[in-house]
Amino acid sequence: MNQLPPGLARIRIKDLRLRTYIGIKEEEILNRQDILINATILYPAADAVSVNQIEQALNYRTITKALIQHVEENRFALLERLTQELLDIVMQHEQVRYAEVEVDKPHALRFAESVSITLSAARD
Predict the structure, then answer these.
(1) Which of 7, 49, 100, 124 pairs as cysteine with 120 (C-beta 3.0–4.6 A)?
(2) HSE (CB half, 13 Å, CA atoms) of 118?
(3) Strand order across the beta sheet in which 8-22 lies
(4) Main-chain dihedrals φ then ψ at residue 44, nearest 5 degrees
């Protein structure tokens, strides 16, 4: 497991299952499909730890709601585009120092469980 730098917290959003229009084939354009979202977010948590108040923490519920709304209200041709847009939503929060977003498209290939794309971003 990756070593976490001191003072940073790691938030993981695991297996957020949503339905959206994703793909380039006619059946994909016309029908919603399942996707799975996994996100890892690093942010400085010293204030949240010492004060124990939500105002000092990065609110993962707010981030998750924004991801859900974006996925459910839009259409996407490529996993790459969807993944980048979700990463951009996470990085809108100034507290975020590093984020990684992975989007899985189950059963995209005949003999594979899923296909996924992972993108990351960092802030100094």
Answers:
(1) 100
(2) 6
(3) 75-76, 8-22, 33-44, 98-106, 114-122
(4) -70, 125
The pLDDT tens digits for 7-58 are 899 999 999 999 999 988 888 888 899 999 999 999 998 787 777 777 778 9
Cβ atoms within 10 Å of 116's Cβ, excluding its own: 17
- Whether 2 maps to a domain, the answer reads no
CB 102 within 8 A of CB 38: yes
1 part of a folded domain? no
In this predicted structure, what is the pLDDT of residue 81?
97
CB 38 within 8 A of CB 16: yes
Give the domain CATH number at 103. 3.30.1130.10
**In a domain? residue 106:** yes
In contact, 20 and 70? CB cutoff 8 Å: no
In a domain, 27, yes or no: yes
Is the separation of the CB atoms in 100 and 74 below 8 Å? no
Phi, psi of 26 (to 5 degrees): -55, -45
